[in-house]
Amino acid sequence: MMVKHLQDTTTLHNGVKMPWFGLGVFKVEEGPELVNAVKSAINHGYLSVDTAAIYENEVGVGEGIREGIRDAGISREELFVTSKVWNADLGYESTIAAYEASLEKLGLAYLDLYLIHWPVEGKYKDAWRALETLYKEGRVKAIGVSNFQTHHLEELMKDAEIKPMVNQVECHPRISQKELQVFCQDNGIQLEAWSPLMQGQLLDNKVLQEIANKHHKSVAQIILRWDLQNGIVTIPKSTKEHRIVENANVFDFELTIEEMQIIDGLNQNLRVGPDPDNFDF
Predict the structure, then answer these.
(1) 172: which DSSP letter?
(2) CATH homologous superfamily for 9-264?
(3) Is position 55 annotated as part of the catalytic site?
(4) Residues in the annotated binding site for substrate
(5) Least enclosed by CB within 10 Å: which of 131, 168, 203, 269?
(6) Burial letters for 70-81: b for 16+ Cβ neighbours within 10 Å, e otherwise?
(7) Catalytic residue among 55, 99, 114, 124
(8) In whole angstroms, what is the distance from residue 43 CA to residue 60 CA?
């Protein structure tokens, strides 16, 4: 599968188009750095921004979006904006209230994608019913989940009227999520990678460096290209303009089948984030 441009999209199972590549803003605090990161990403052609209530930076993301679309001369409708409901708000009414709070902070009339952030046992089904309501009322373009394992998805879909359109999970060469990807593909759920660069821990990996040297690319670019060729949406985080540009410079080369297999072979099921089967927040 060849993704050729930063603006290329995958079509979710409800027909909504989602960019393959976006900007993540995890752990970026409110302030000028955040606003400038979002604004410069949009100015350099990014059409997707991913945030969450728990990041406590939706106000700045909204500001960056407004400045970015003004400077780039595009419309809000051309952007794909994602946020997530936090664990403390996972109830039917509280999830709807959380959605409204996120919209208010972002200064937006709607979100393109709203996700349940973590599969909190005994709570995520009520939250999913709320997302279904928001979707059926036309208040959000697409709904999905984050950090759901196969068994969480199976459990959710037992009672769901609408199956998730996206599952955003930790995914990088040390945790390649192959089985989950197959399950998602079989069920028409788009897999999306958070922390695709393993928070920088893979950038000096010798195997990846060898492949990068062959293509005259950075290790980060190799990993992001690997995501795309695996059919995984990716949202690398950066606040530096040159890095935002560099991360997206992955559309002028292709990894060979052998190189893809070598990168797949780095998998150790090793996480940098919490385990979705064992978290206490």
Answers:
(1) B
(2) NADP-dependent oxidoreductase domain (3.20.20.100)
(3) yes
(4) 117
(5) 269
(6) eebeeeeeebbb
(7) 55
(8) 16
